[in-house]
Amino acid sequence: MASSLSIPTTLSLNPSLSFSNFPKPTSKTIFFPPNSNPKTPVLKKKLASQIQASSADFAPGLLQQAIELVKSSPPTWQSAVLANAVIFILGSPILVSGLSPSGFAAAFFLGSLTWRAFGYSGFLLVATYFVIGTAATKVKMDQKEAQGVAEKMKGRRGPGSVIGSSAAGCVCALLSISGIGGGALTRLWELGFVASFCTKLSDTVSSEIGKAYGRTTYLVTTFKIVPRGTEGAVSLEGTFAGILASVLLASVAYVLGQINIPQAIICVIASQIANLGESIIGAVFQEKEGFQWLNNDAVNVLNISMGSILAILMQQLIFQNWLT
């Protein structure tokens, strides 16, 4: 810029008086930040920095609010859906291996309903049932497929299977949420909820382990030897595995504080009676003439309903005097 201006050589006859009224110039250094962009207004830079700082401050606050919402006691629908969504995202690799896409959606509804009714303990109980049941279904899958007794879609559960396995538990959850019977019956609905999943897990494990390892399978109504996978067939290996599964899940419910020890015993007994009834129904009625509607999912609903109702009746009629 300086080289483009021409300065006159003579400004005044008396140079000493030309600039006498002006203060002596001082030197100042102008600093430009490295990589600065002259076209970007300083105000805009400051505003962007403030927005970034505000976002950084906002994220921890939002996370804290989400954590407090999940910890809500008693649970709310908002906390149930949020907690369920986080768990489903984190656990999606496991869930996808055991659920079809539509089954995934049905399981999300079940998880949200369970959390809303019984909190994290109910959700963990269902998660334990799902993990053990899925693992049992996949035991010796190639062998089961070769024999034609494997579950469809390599054991991945669709919506019918999810609903058929949880219908009684969902009813108990809705009764608890609605407050039917007041506080006096709240624990009964939770007992029925636990018993329904103990029943279903016992049935699943006994069936899948029986098909994989059962040396001899008998038709429950006649004790006639029949091929593995026959409706209404039982084996010693499968029956023993089913009992262990119900004991395990009842123990988990006890550790989570859902039931006490006598109620855990009730759940195990009720599950075995219900499974015996389910085997009889399968042998005599399932998909027989006049009962084509009675498919596997419908039998599952009857099975878990029997387990749930039996547990509640046993609690009220037999153990009421000494259960706490």
TrEMBL record:
The keyword Membrane is annotated on this UniProt entry: yes
Cellular location(s): Membrane
Keyword Transmembrane helix set for record: yes
InterPro entries: DUF92_TMEM19
Pfam families the record matches: DUF92
Membrane association type: Multi-pass membrane protein
Keywords: Membrane, Transmembrane, Transmembrane helix
GO cellular component: chloroplast inner membrane
Parts of the chain that traverse the membrane: 81-111, 117-139, 160-181, 238-257, 264-286, 298-319
Origin superkingdom: Eukaryota
Family (UniProt): Belongs to the TMEM19 family.
PANTHER family (UniProt xref): TRANSMEMBRANE PROTEIN 19
UniProt-recorded name of the protein: Protein VTE6, chloroplastic
Source organism of the structure: Perilla frutescens var. hirtella
Lineage of the species this protein comes from: Eukaryota, Viridiplantae, Streptophyta, Embryophyta, Tracheophyta
